[in-house]
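dumping this here so i dont lose it
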């Protein structure tokens, strides 16, 4: 792979590889309705995504005054159960994602997913979309235990190790991703088309892409 600067490329899932906000937003709204809260417009659900499912629901409920912990736990469980049944209803890869994965695979680059979703959901969605075989490893928000999800560096290091080591780059859409990459000392590309919690150029990434068409050139110039 003398002509390509990376042995491994790791991808965030929600807002980077996959457009997931419709299914996530519907699951949040399912829980909000059960709890007697007002639902969020699906188009704005992307503002809640990044820190994992629990933070996503907590943000939606806190915006409406909050709730006591026991009731939150019930609604959170209901949301997860609903999402587990509907996580691939509308979820799809971003335009150009598959083509970019094909190009990387043809170069012999190993591919990883590093997400704050539960690993079981991530694997289920990748399976439903027929993408599982493309990735050498999948690290979820719960894979390594408490305090070891993004923005901690551990999931990126775990992916690097599980992919057999070598030079790795990460592609993500939020400050959880760039924070993890900085902490892990891994070069990072920000996906401006995703669910960015800040404007992409403020995410402290080494490069910003507007679509998957920009990915390979960005990796080549990192
Ligand atoms: O589900 C979330 O909130 C975050 O998931 P991601 O790490 O794949 O963006
Ligand atoms: Mg994301």
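and the seq i came up w/
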């Amino acid at each position: 792979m003398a002509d390509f600067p990376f042995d491994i490329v790791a991808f965030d899932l929600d807002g980077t590889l996959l457009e997931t906000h419709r299914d996530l937003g519907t699951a949040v709204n399912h829980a909000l309705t059960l709890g007697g809260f007002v639902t969020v417009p699906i188009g704005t659900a992307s503002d809640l995504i990044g820190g994992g499912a629990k933070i996503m629901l907590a943000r939606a409920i806190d915006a409406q005054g909050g709730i006591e912990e026991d009731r939150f736990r019930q609604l959170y469980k209901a949301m997860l159960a609903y999402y587990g049944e509907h996580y691939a209803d509308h979820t799809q890869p971003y335009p150009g994602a598959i083509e970019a994965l094909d190009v990387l695979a043809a170069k012999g680059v190993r591919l990883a997913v590093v997400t704050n979703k539960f690993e079981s959901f991530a694997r289920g969605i990748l399976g439903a979309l027929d993408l599982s075989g493309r990735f050498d490893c999948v690290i979820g928000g719960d894979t390594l235990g408490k305090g070891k999800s993004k923005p901690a560096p551990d999931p990126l290091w775990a992916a690097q190790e599980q992919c057999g080591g070598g030079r790795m780059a990460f592609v993500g859409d939020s400050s959880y991703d760039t924070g993890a990459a900085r902490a892990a000392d891994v070069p990072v590309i920000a996906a401006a088309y995703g669910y960015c919690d800040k404007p992409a150029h403020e995410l402290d990434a080494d490069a910003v892409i507007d679509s998957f068409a920009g990915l390979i050139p960005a990796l080549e110039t990192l």
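Helices lie at 21-34, 53-62, 69-86, 97-106, 119-128, 154-162, 175-184, 215-221.
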